[in-house]
Write a structure and sequence with these properties.
The structure holds 2 protein chains of 2 kinds. Chain A is built from 13 helices and 13 strands. By secondary structure, chain A is of the alpha/beta class. Chain A has 2 domains: 204 residues, no CATH class; 150 residues, Nutrient germinant receptor protein C, domain 3 (GMP Synthetase, Chain A, domain 3). The N and C termini of chain A lie far apart (112 Å).
């Protein structure tokens, strides 16, 4: 008898267990969510207010295979930019519920765009919610735009249906030239939390008019704490990237040794190391750079495939890299913003001396001496050894 | 009279200890606010300090073979004082189970199910633990073997997937920690993850070969400590200074895994890890409480106590902390001292036993 009751109980429990399988308490069905792929923050007209633009995906439009024709303008963009103004980003995000029938869903956000004017006033108050919120991720790319972020999020090139994805891929592609940094939110936070190292972010702007609008990434925005103080141009940016070991590729032109045209060299590999040396009262930062490159093109007719000429090209390449670094250093000194992380490197090696330096780092930084030791190797001359010209007699 | 019919082998004990220590793998993040990038160092020093204490626990159980903590207290402190000491211990086990449950449910609520009420998570989790405790020590020991292997596997795989994001400069400068912070960090590490194994004094009598207890406890501690070490090294190397402001650095660092945009968003692995590690920890504490009360009141079986104690643990976990800030504060300031009292008193028990020349 007892066994039978036990058996019936077990069966009943099994049936009851079916109920919780079917659903979950705080479920979010796919058709009640709006996927945010890009967020832009602009200064609003009223002082202290910001305008937040979020780009959400329209999944239905995304699927239609017919290539979208810009001229038809039938309103079939695969995205929808929602804009609202307010005082804090988190507040505005909640306010979007007045316009969007779907709940905004942030984990797939690709890019965070700050208008330059806003960044100049300080980003800390606005970036906080993107760090604190559970839904957001640290892989998000941080970008500063010269134009209004809402405009930038509206430029579609036709390669991607979603402008935000386009921007994210554009920023990632910059490693081909190493003339613009790729900054993820986690890198930005780490620099923001450092006492001396200044955050950086790539700069973006809209070029062209009307339907011909495209985006261009140019140079680096330089911050001091959370405020934008200046910018580096493309060449200076690569100078910075050489020092912080972020160069992945790029082209450098040097004059050929016989004065006959220029030789274009491509960087294939780069590695750098920073070592501070404190002697008496002077601070010296030693920067060792090892780079490898190949000959990419040549405008003259000289046969450069000889060890001597390769050696002189390597010399010139080293000098060119040195110039780039010095250019970046000069701008950083002018802006008094330690983008290279010299302060941190001193702290890592000389923690006790750093305690004294920490207080007056702003005065010390412009006078820090830098010694460069650049070692370059040209590994190959490409498919050909000599240019396609008639052999010289 | 044996309250528990089950017997566990010494290797099962090793896994049980390892799993128990690993239950605090995410709790270790509390020290990040104190010790910054040197958490790995205090994990090592905490482990080193806790091994002598673990040896004391083993020595105590060797001195009184086949006796658990309540019985040992009765022999050493006499019939009246021992009741008080044992009752305090039982309260300690019960409250730690409650705190752990509170931490677990708060984390799950924060990172997975923000709209689910806390008690739903607590009750479901405690139901599983209650079921395990009712089935006895053997079941718990056998599951722990599998679970510990899963946990170690997850920790290792996330470590290797994050290798490319690691920066060794995050550990520099090598040692720039004030002595006070170092001692505080070591103290937290020693008391919270490692020395809470004092509850195993309730379990030692059920190990089949008493002689090997020492070896398995030390090995278990080393396995658990080693895994916590790998976890903290990973977090610091990946997040750097940012790990000091994160509520849960493990989840945040694993979130950064991005292997060719295919293997991404693995943070659920960490939550799973937390869930199964906490299962072992809460179950052992729960088991210790139930067994202790049964022994204290001279009951013939502990089974009828399982559900009432479970409901006490659930309500304790709901009542103790109002917010994660409170539980963080408890873990860094009050908790280590609260637990140290109980973790250190077996040493006194051993000394008293030596002085009174017990057992006769």
């Amino acid at each position: 008898m007892k066994n039978r009751i036990g058996f019936i109980m077990k069966i009943m429990v099994c049936f009851m267990l079916i109920l919780p399988i079917s659903g979950c308490w705080s479920r979010h069905e796919l058709n009640s969510l709006s996927f945010v792929v890009g967020v832009g923050l602009d200064k609003a007209e009223k002082p202290g207010e910001i305008q937040l633009t979020t780009q959400v995906v329209k999944p239905g439009e995304l699927k239609s295979s017919s290539a979208k024709n810009k001229s038809s303008e039938s309103g079939t963009n695969a995205y929808w930019n929602i804009k609202k103004t307010g005082y804090l980003a988190s507040e505005i995000i909640k306010d979007f519920s007045h316009e969007s029938s779907h709940k905004l869903y942030f984990p797939h956000n690709q890019v965070l765009i700050f208008e330059r004017k806003l960044a100049e006033e300080g980003m800390q108050p606005y970036i906080d919610t993107f760090i604190r919120d559970i839904e957001t991720r640290f892989n998000v790319l941080v970008v500063v735009s010269e134009d209004r972020a809402s405009e930038v999020l509206d430029v579609s090139t036709g390669l991607e249906k979603l402008p935000a994805i386009n921007i994210a891929k554009l920023v990632e592609t910059q490693k081909i030239t190493s003339e613009s940094p790729t900054v993820k939110l986690i890198d930005f936070i780490r620099r923001l939390m450092s006492k001396t190292t200044a955050p950086i972010a790539p700069l973006i702007r809209v070029t062209g008019e009307g339907n011909e609008k495209t985006l261009e990434v140019f140079g680096t925005a330089v911050f001091k704490h959370d405020k934008l103080v200046g910018e580096l141009n493309k060449r200076e940016t690569r100078g910075l990237l050489w020092v912080i070991n972020e160069v992945k590729g790029g082209m450098i032109n040097v004059a050929s040794s016989s004065g006959d045209g220029t030789v274009s060299l491509e960087i294939t590999r780069a590695k750098s190391k920073m070592t501070p040396v404190i002697q008496a009262d002077t601070i010296l930062i030693k920067i060792d750079i090892k780079a490898e490159g190949i000959v990419n093109s040549q405008s003259g007719s000289e046969n450069i495939a000889s060890p001597d000429i390769v050696f002189s090209l390597e010399k010139k390449l080293s000098a060119e890299i040195g110039k780039e670094i010095m250019a970046a250093l000069k701008t950083a000194r002018d802006l008094n913003s330690d983008i290279f992380g010299f302060g941190d490197s001193i702290y890592w090696k000389y923690p006790s001396e750093w305690k004294k330096l920490k207080m007056k780092w702003d005065e010390v930084f412009p006078d820090v001496e830098v010694a460069l030791n650049i070692d370059t190797k040209l590994r190959s001359t490409g498919n050909i050894s000599a240019p396609a010209v008639p052999a010289k007699e | 009279m044996r309250l528990e019919k089950g017997i566990i082998s010494s290797s099962q004990l090793m896994f049980l200890v390892a799993g128990y220590v690993l239950g605090s793998v995410l709790v270790a993040a509390f020290t990040n606010t104190v010790t910054k990038q040197y958490t790995w160092l205090v994990v090592l020093s905490g482990l080193a300090v806790s091994i002598p204490l673990a040896l004391v626990y083993v020595a105590l159980t060797r001195k009184f073979p086949g006796k658990d903590l309540v019985q040992i207290n009765r022999i050493v402190y006499g019939p009246y004082l021992s009741k008080l000491v044992s009752a305090l211990y039982i309260w300690f086990f019960c409250s730690i189970a409650g705190f752990m449950l509170a931490y677990l449910s708060q984390t799950i609520k924060d990172y997975m199910m923000p709209e689910t009420p806390l008690f739903a998570i607590c009750i479901l989790f405690t139901c599983i633990c209650a079921w395990t405790v009712r089935n006895g020590i053997e079941v718990l020991a056998r599951t722990s073997v599998i679970f510990v292997m899963i946990i170690i596997f997850v920790i290792l795989i996330t470590f290797f997937l994050l290798l490319k994001d690691m920066e060794l400069t995050n550990f520099l400068p090598f040692f720039d920690l004030s002595l006070k912070d170092f001692i505080q960090g070591t103290h937290i590490m020693m008391t919270l993850p490692f020395c809470e194994i004092v509850v195993f004094l309730m379990l030692f009598p059920y190990v089949n070969k008493g002689v090997e207890t020492k070896k398995s406890v030390i090995l278990g501690l080393l396995i658990g400590g080693g895994s916590i070490l790998i976890d903290t090294v990973r977090n610091t190397a990946v997040l750097g200074v940012a790990s000091t402001i994160m509520i849960s650095p493990s989840i945040e660092s694993v979130r950064l895994i991005d292997l060719a945009e295919i293997i991404t968003r693995l943070e659920m692995l960490v939550i799973t890890l937390l869930l199964i590690a906490m299962f072992i920890k809460v179950s052992v504490m729960y088991y210790g409480t139930v067994l202790g009360i049964a022994r204290l009141c001279n009951l013939r079986s502990y089974r009828q106590l399982v559900l009432p104690i479970g409901s006490i643990i659930v309500s304790l976990s709901m009542m103790t902390f109002d917010s994660l800030a409170q539980s963080n504060d408890f873990a860094t300031r009050t908790g280590p001292f609260f637990t140290l009292v109980f973790e250190f008193s077996p040493v006194i028990t051993l000394l008293v036993a030596k002085i009174r020349k017990l057992p006769k």
